[in-house]
Amino acid sequence: MKTERIKSLRIGTRGSKLALWQAKWVKARLVEARSNLRVDLVIIKTSGDMIQGVPLAKIGGKGLFVKEIENALLDGGIDLAVHSMKDVPILIPPGLSIQCVTKREDPFDALISRSGYGLSKLRQGARIGTGSLRRQAQLLHVRSDFAIVTIRGNLDTRLRKLEEQNLDAILLAVAGLKRMGLGDRITETIPTEICLPAIGQGVLAIETRLEDHEVNETIAFLNDSETAVTMRAERAFLKRLEGGCQVPIAAYARWVDGGLVVEGMVASVDGKRMVRQTKRGEAEEAEALGVQLAETILSLGGDEILREIYDQNL
Fold first, then answer.
1. N or C: which end of the chain has fewer CB within 10 A?
2. Residues annotated catalytic, as ranges
3. What structural domains does the chain harbor?
4. What is the share, in percent, of the chain residues with pLDDT greater than 70?
C-alpha cells in the first residue's frame, strides 16, 4: 500500500489537557494501526486560548479555536489537526477538509452542583456558571429565576470557579468530563428535552489538506460513518442559520429505527422566546433535513429572534 511510505505524522492540537487527551487518543489509534509509524504532537496556541477574560460571543466565536491550527496545516507545519467538532466553523479554508469524524461520545450537557442537587431542586435564584449562550438560553427558558454567571477556561479552570466564585452549579459537556476521567463529578446529565447539545458536541474532527492523499488514506479508518451522517445534518442546520457562538442555536441528530431524527432550537438570550422543532427522514437526506429544519424554525419566528440578537451585537 502506498500509505506505507508515510513514516511519520505531525498532529496539531491546542495545549489544554482535554485537547491533548483528544490528540493523544488519535495518536494511539494511529500507532495501533501502524506500529512503525512515528506520530508527534505539535501544540499550537490559538486566539481562543489567549483571550480569556471576554465572553466568546464578544470576540468572534468558533474560529478562534482553530484558525492558527489551520494556518499551520496550510503552511505544512503539521499533517493533520484534531479539533472538537463543536469548535469547527462551517466554512473550511480552501485546500483543507474535515477528513474524519470519530464515533460520538455522550453528546449531552452535565450539571455539576456544589449542593449535589439536580437542576429542578436548585435554590431560587441559584448562580449558574457557563460560557455558552446556548446553555444559558435553555436554562433560563426552564428556570427564569437562575442568575447566569459567565465563566470561561478549560475544565480545571471552570471546576475551580465553581468554588472560587461561590456558584451553585456549572454546566459542562459530559464528553469532556468523561474523557478527562471526571465523570464522577457529574451531578446530573441534562436531558435533551431541557437542553439540546451544541452542534457536533462529543465528536472529534480530524482536518487535513485536501490533496494530501497519503495522509488521508492513512487516517481513513478513524472515520465513523454513522456519526458522519449526523454531522452532515447538524452542520447543514447551522449553515442555513448562519450561526455561531454569538447566538443560542442547538441541534442534535440521532439514528432511530434506521432513520435520522434531527432536533433543532433557536432562542433569545434571555430564554423567554424559543422555537424548537424536529424533522425525520432517511440518512441520504441528512443535509436536506438540516436545511428543512432550519427553514421551519425560521418561519416560526426564529428569523425574528436571530435578527434581534444580531442587531444588538452590531
1. C
2. 87
3. 2-102+204-223 (3.40.190.10), 109-190 (3.40.190.10), 234-313 (3.30.160.40)
4. 92
